[in-house]
Each structure stands twice: as structure tokens, then as C-alpha cells.
Design goal:
Radius of gyration: 17 Å
Helix content: 25-40%
Mean pLDDT: 85
Strand order of the largest sheet: 1-3-4-2-5-6-7
Strand content: 15-25%
Shape: globular
Number of helices: 5
CATH architecture: 3-Layer(aba) Sandwich
Structural class: alpha/beta
Number of strands: 7
Length: about 230
């Protein structure tokens, strides 16, 4: 039997632009249309991934200092679709009170944002499945939220080690998420990620009748960064 060809509508990021930043849920844009949020630990490379995905090197602010993204940042793709850059989690040099604020803001966003149609979770391929990652996996499974994992900085490993890490995470995650290799600096994985976004837009979002529970408690004093 010949392989079936899926004709998905392609998402275009040609006209993407920064919309606004929000310190809390009440400051977010109107909760209409669809949006995909990027989340991950502070050194996972979220802003770099968004810049590579869109082809705009300065769209999302990047820094050599992890934890620079302290607000929820919204980017308009079209009238009906947005990308969202959530605060990075786990930067050890940030005061504990601020880390707790970030956790609360992420929690409120995930539980209450009706337009959220999918989460992109970034993990450093050398340090996957940390406590925050597992928390997000469990939350998405319970909420019926589509989840796609980027194993970032894959250029840091040789090809054999890349495939071994990918297989390991696939085994651990099972059917809870789709997974791919990704590297902003070596331009790996852009097309796969764009296809995933297109699929989520075409699906129109998750089942909104499923309850969205609070994130599990994360020890913000313990969830530090690995050395790069």
C-alpha cells in the first residue's frame, strides 16, 4: 500500500511580530484564537528556539545569563494565532521569592488560558527529564494538553549519542508527547516543529472540558541549572 500523504495547512511565520509582555494572567492579551507556549528550564534555549523557528534573530531576547525571560511574552503570528515565551524555570541565582512568582504565573497561565492549544517543552539533550520536565509531562497528560518536546543543543553530541538520547526519552515519555532533535545554532529541526504547529492549529486545540489542575509543587530551591 502506498504511503499516505498528509496535506496539512502550513503555518506561516512571515508576519510574526512581538505583541506584548505580561507579568501576570490579567495582563495577557484577549483570550481568543489559538496560541502555543514554549516552556523549559532557564538554560534550555527557549528564546533562541523561537528566533530560529521564525528566522528573526532578535524577535525573542536572548542572553548568556539564564533566567532573562521573566515575563510571559506574546508574539502575533496572525489574527487567530500566537506564540508565547514563558519564563524560564530553575535559575539558581534568582531569589527564591522571584522563582516562586514565576511558578505561580506559569501555573495561572496554564490552568486558565483557554486559547492554549499546545505546549513545546524544551530540554537540553544532555540533561533531559529533570523534575520540572516531569511535572510538565504529568500536567499535560492530566489536562489532555498536546505536548511536543524539543531536545535542544543536539549539536553538542555526536550523531550516535543524539539517537541514543532521543530513544531514551521516547521510551520514558511513551505516548505522552511527540519528540524531536533540535539545534538553533546548527539549524536542526525547524521543519518538523513547523509541521507540529500546523497540526495543532488544524486540530483547533485540546478538549476544553478536561480539568486543568494546579502544577505539582516544585522545590524552587533545589531545581538549579546544570553546567553548560
Amino acid at each position: 500500500m502506498p504511503e499516505q500523504i498528509i496535506n496539512r495547512p502550513k503555518v506561516s511565520l512571515d508576519d510574526i511580530q512581538f505583541l506584548k509582555s505580561a507579568a501576570k494572567l490579567s495582563q495577557c492579551p484577549a483570550d481568543v484564537g489559538l496560541e502555543v507556549a514554549f516552556c523549559g528550564r532557564s538554560n534550555a534555549g527557549k528564546s533562541s528556539a523561537i528566533n530560529y523557528l521564525t528566522g528573526l534573530n532578535k524577535l525573542a531576547r536572548t542572553s548568556k545569563t539564564p533566567g532573562r525571560t521573566q515575563l510571559i511574552n506574546f508574539f502575533t503570528v496572525s489574527e487567530a494565532f500566537r506564540l508565547v515565551d514563558l519564563p524560564g524555570y530553575g535559575y539558581a541565582k534568582v531569589p527564591t521569592a522571584l522563582k516562586r512568582d514565576w511558578h505561580e504565573n506559569i501555573d495561572n497561565y496554564l490552568r486558565n488560558r483557554e486559547s492554549l492549544c499546545g505546549l513545546v517543552l524544551l530540554m537540553d539533550i544532555r540533561h533531559p527529564l529533570k523534575p520540572f520536565d516531569q511535572t510538565m509531562l504529568d500536567w499535560c497528560a492530566g489536562a489532555g494538553m498536546p505536548l511536543h518536546i524539543l531536545l535542544t543543543k543536539c549539536d553538542k553530541l555526536k550523531r550516535g549519542a543524539q539517537q541514543a538520547a532521543l530513544l531514551h526519552v521516547k521510551r520514558e515519555v511513551s505516548k505522552l508527547a511527540t519528540i524531536q532533535l533540535f539545534s538553533s545554532t546548527h539549524e536542526v529541526g525547524q521543519k518538523i516543529l513547523l509541521n507540529q504547529l500546523s497540526d495543532w492549529i488544524a486540530a483547533g486545540g485540546p478538549d476544553r472540558t478536561m480539568p486543568r489542575k494546579d502544577l505539582q509543587d516544585i522545590n524552587v530551591d533545589q531545581e538549579g541549572l546544570d553546567q553548560d
